[in-house]
Known about the structure:
- The structure holds 2 protein chains of 2 kinds.
- Chain A is about 70% helix and about 0% strand.
- Chain A is mainly α.
- Chain A has 2 domains: about 90 residues, RNA polymerase sigma factor, region 2, helix turn helix motif (Rna Polymerase Sigma Factor, Chain: A, Orthogonal Bundle); about 100 residues, Orthogonal Bundle (Arc Repressor Mutant, subunit A).
- The radius of gyration of chain A is 19 Å and the shape is globular.
- Chain B has 4 helices and no strands.
- Chain B starts with a helix and ends with a helix.
- The model of chain B has no long low-confidence stretch (mean pLDDT about 80).
- At the A-B interface, helix 2, helix 3, helix 6 and helix 9 of A face helix 1 and helix 2 of B.
Amino acid sequence: xxxxxxxxxxxxxxxxxxxxxxxxxxxxxxxxxxxxxxxxxxxxxxxxxxxxxxxxxxxxxxxxxxxxxxxxxxxxxxxxxxxxxxxxxxxxxxxxxxxxxxxxxxxxxxxxxxxxxxxxxxxxxxxxxxxxxxxxxxxxxxxxxxxxxxxxxxxxxxxxxxxxxxxxxxxxxxxxxxxxxxxxxxxxxxxxxxxxxxxxxxx
Amino acid sequence: xxxxxxxxxxxxxxxxxxxxxxxxxxxxxxxxxxxxxxxxxxxxxxxxxxxxxxxxxxxxxxxxxxxxxxxxxxxxxxxxxxxxxxxxxxxxxxxxxxxxxxxx
Lengths: 203, 104
């Protein structure tokens, strides 16, 4: 199991390439996309929880990057900038989804089974099925908070971004982020507790 | 940290592991460039339309000035009279006086 602390945070491209892309070099832009697409698609997958729409949102992120590169002050802030675009695209997607009132999770009894697995480290024969259930479980918990908090919480808890990195992405103070994260986590924790007690009640 | 917090942290970790970074499909890059080109074309056509509107407005203003303002200016007496006419109109009486003195 790869822990969050092991997350690779190194820049994947050099500043010169970013500068070239900023100056309208399509080949440089292509190289940037190829370097970052896997990481960004992974982040999007965990933010939106819908594998079938990940590429579409990912293309939207790089499309926004292409047309906003000239607004980038320096190449040093490229990664927070890219994450900001990712967050915005994911947020737009989630907002559209909520408007459509599509529910990802319907089978509550299944959630309770997953919860027992998640907390006690249950052994599953079908690994893929187990993964899917974990994903659904987390998605259902994250639905208890707003889209903004869901994204913030995922970036912190799942993606493992530090408060400093989040500060650069959100342009707000560390203290404000701490408060927001604490409240969001409390809400998710409450939902998690509710699910756990339901699960315990069934046993 | 209580048991629930630990349970939630474990769940985040499991979620992270259950969602590895997906491999982009072969359609990712062509699809992206298609969208970029479509946006570029749309921006270019908006710019073209805006410039067309600007040109049309300018031409219409020039025509309006030509049709309405220029004839009005021409009708004003100052612009239609010749230099001699203006001199005559202003100094007509002085000339009469001079002629009269010559006769004497």
